[in-house]
Structure formats: C-alpha cells, structure tokens
Amino acid sequence: MSVGAQLSVTDMRRAARHPIDIRVIGEHWRAGDIPLHIVNISAQGFMAQGSVSMSRGERVTVRLPKVGRIEAHLIWIAEDRAGFQFERIIRPDDFFALVDEVQPNPRLRRTR
After folding, report:
1. Residue 1 predicted with pLDDT over 50
2. Cα three-residue angle 57-94-48, rounded to 5 degrees
3. Which of the residues 5, 40, 51, 74 has the least number of beta carbons within 10 Å of its own beta carbon?
4. Residue 81 vs residues 46, 110, 112: alpha-carbon distances, Å
5. pLDDT tens, position by position, 54-98
6. What whole-number distance in Å separates Cα of residue 77 and Cα of residue 55?
C-alpha cells in the first residue's frame, strides 16, 4: 500500500503561474481552519507563503473566487513556502475569471 496523496493530475510544476495575493481559510480534517496566503496560482495548484501546520500528502479544502470549493494536496514545503496541487484541474474559463478578479497587477490580467 502506497503512502501519500494519490493524485489524478500529473505533476505539472512547469505550468504557467500567475502572481496573486489572496488570503483564504483552508479546511483541514485534523487542524481545522488553516489561514493560507496564496502568492501564485496555476490551473493545477498554488503556492502559499507562511507557516503551514500540515505534512506532505495531506489535504486541505479551499474556497476560491469564481471556482468555489476545491481540494488540494500538500506536495512540498520549503522554509516559509508550501506547494499544493489541486485534486482536479480548474477549467480554463473559471481559472482566467479567478485570475482577473484577484490579480493585483492589472497589466498581468488576461486581455480579452
């Protein structure tokens, strides 16, 4: 029996990331509510900055604008950063609507 997250999304760490600055509350089965500061995001996952009271492979559910509730698995932790992979890929139209809403720099928002 293998240990850790069994993800259906392939590892796509080279996917385009969008810098954002959003604070959300993650729901964790053991730790309860966990504050997360998301600093970049892709359709496959996000990076949070700050301490995370979780171990690799554990799951957290976050609520994102335009996307709603989505589960993510902790993939890596390094110093004060943590990388999460979504349990499913966010649809492109929902993803770009999310970026348009939370992107702090208007020049980095998608042009229509």
Report:
1. no
2. 35
3. 51
4. 11, 26, 32
5. 899 999 999 999 999 999 999 999 989 999 999 999 999 999 899
6. 8
